[in-house]
Amino acid sequence: MQLVFATNNSNKLKEVQALIPAHIKLLSLKDIDCFEDIPETQNTIEGNAIQKAEYVKQHYGYDCFADDTGLEVDILNGEPGVFSARYAGEQRNADDNMNKLLTKLNHKNNRNAQFKTVIALQLNNKQYTFTGICKGEITTTKHGEKGFGYDPIFKPKDYDVTFSEMDLSLKNSIGHRGKAIFKLIQFLNS
What is the pTM of this model? Predict the structure, then answer.
């Protein structure tokens, strides 16, 4: 079986490749000569994942899965949510995004948050979705060098370190994307 993972994010690709079983050949967008920006114009995380997977299937003909992930902060009514990647602007800069979030949470006691990943799978002309959630809290400062996005300021529940301080195997086993990918793999193996 071969599947396209509809992402241009090399960090996401690396995380997912570490989880996918060997009998599934994972293709990147580059592998299928898809270099355009795939639209993400929906107002939900689920909607964006579905839109990306449908785009690849319609324009390139490959069975495909796509993900969208958002960080949802309780006291900010779910911000940045679907706008996580461009929270501080269209330049999609992780440091700018984290700085904006830390500023908004300055002097706030409730720092509870969750990462949510939705994977949309287009397989044999049918659509499936798989959701993974990791609850935790936003730290007051950045910690760690690993990971990407908001990882330096997100500390998962029951852990004393941020995602950026964890090795990839631990992050994958407890994290939102890992949980969603695990559901996808279970489905593909069934």
Answer: 0.90
